Structure formats: structure tokens, C-alpha cells
């Protein structure tokens, strides 16, 4: 197997397997917001592609249901390609949502990691031959930064927001499950969810 194929295999493996972690990089909570904690959530995914939006919203809603919360996806009432502002208010009333969870992509960064592999031992001549034979390991990957905001449906004010980072993947359901697994406990601990 030549080095370029090996590098592609390593990158593919890294992207598929390493997307298992999502980390919170920044967070803010309105110090003046006293709740009460919510049990009914409207989920809004901001995406250019309607398929991506639907998959994200359905998956996050399912994760909220699994955690014992009421939740609804916005796509059923807000058509693709429109800002949906007028219909959003109607949807909040119709679903009884207490908070609105909105997630949007902030940026995608391409990163490269070069790890040199050292030459072997065995004196200068063994070291010198090993130095020529060894090649560095190069991996390329994407880091995806998302912003998730919570809006109080009653006051229409922003009450909580975080940015998260994770490795890029084309598996939207899995990435959404990982995001939900990171955010739902945090929302509960911060008193935003019951």
C-alpha cells in the first residue's frame, strides 16, 4: 500500500472514529434569568440544506424525548428557504414550548497534524539509515464549531448560549446525538431544563 493511500485511510479512519467527542468551548448564561426550568422545547436547526435541518431537528427532538422532555421540530411549520419569523411565533404557541433551542454552524476549519516518526537506534549508521527510511505521519481533519442558543419563549430573550467544537463528519444523526449528549445534561445542570 503506498503512502498516499495509507494517508487517505488514516484520515478517513480519524474522521469517522474521532467524532465521538464534542466539547464546550465558550458559554454564557443570562445572570438575570431566573427561569423556571423548562420541560418543553422547540428545536430549530439553522442550515442551508433542508435535509440537514430535518435530520438535525428530528435527532435532537428524539434525544430530548429520551431524556424525558417534550420537544418539537420546527421544520414541519417553517418551510425551507424562508426565515419563518411570523410562523415561529405561532409554532411556539401551538407546541406550548417554554424555550427555543437554536443551533447554527459558526465555522469549519481544516487542520493538518504532522507527527514525525523518529529513526531507529543502533549506532550512527543504523540511525542514519532509519532517518532516511522514516516518514512523518500526516492527518487532515475538519473541526466544526456550532453555536447553540436558548431563547425564553415567554420573554423572547436570549438566556443561554454555548459554542461547541467537534471533529467533522458526514454522519449528521451521530454528530447530533453527541451534541445532545453534551448539551442536555449541561442545560439541566445550568437550570435551563428541569
UniProtKB/TrEMBL annotation:
Signal peptide from the UniProt entry: 1-20
Residue span, DUF4136 domain: 102-179
Coiled-coil stretches noted in the UniProt entry, renumbered to this chain: none
Entries under PROSITE patterns matching the protein: PROKAR_LIPOPROTEIN (PS51257)
Pfam family, one: DUF4136
Statement: the UniProt record of this protein carries the keyword Coiled coil: no
UniProt keyword annotations, A-Z: Signal
Keyword Signal in record: yes
InterPro entries: DUF4136 (IPR025411)
Protein name: DUF4136 domain-containing protein
Taxonomy of the source species: Bacteria, Pseudomonadati, Pseudomonadota, Gammaproteobacteria, Lysobacterales
Amino acid at each position: 500500500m503506498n503512502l498516499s493511500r495509507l494517508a487517505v485511510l488514516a484520515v478517513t479512519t480519524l474522521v469517522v472514529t474521532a467524532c465521538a467527542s464534542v466539547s464546550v468551548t465558550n458559554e454564557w448564561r443570562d445572570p438575570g434569568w431566573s427561569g423556571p426550568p423548562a420541560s418543553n422545547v422547540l428545536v430549530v436547526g439553522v442550515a442551508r440544506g433542508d435535509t440537514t435541518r430535518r435530520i438535525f431537528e428530528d435527532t435532537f427532538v428524539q434525544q430530548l424525548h429520551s431524556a424525558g422532555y417534550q420537544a418539537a421540530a420546527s421544520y414541519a411549520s417553517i418551510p425551507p428557504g424562508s426565515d419563518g419569523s411570523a410562523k415561529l411565533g405561532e409554532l411556539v404557541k401551538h407546541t406550548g414550548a417554554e424555550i427555543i433551542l437554536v443551533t447554527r454552524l459558526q465555522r469549519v476549519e481544516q487542520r493538518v497534524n504532522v507527527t514525525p516518526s523518529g529513526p531507529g537506534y543502533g549506532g550512527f549508521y543504523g540511525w542514519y539509515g532509519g532517518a532516511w527510511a522514516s516518514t512523518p505521519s500526516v492527518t487532515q481533519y475538519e473541526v466544526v464549531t456550532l453555536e447553540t442558543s436558548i431563547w425564553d419563549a415567554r420573554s423572547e430573550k436570549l438566556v443561554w448560549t454555548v459554542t461547541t467544537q467537534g471533529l467533522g463528519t458526514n454522519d449528521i444523526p451521530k454528530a447530533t446525538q453527541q451534541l445532545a449528549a453534551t448539551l442536555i445534561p449541561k442545560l439541566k445542570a445550568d437550570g435551563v431544563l428541569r
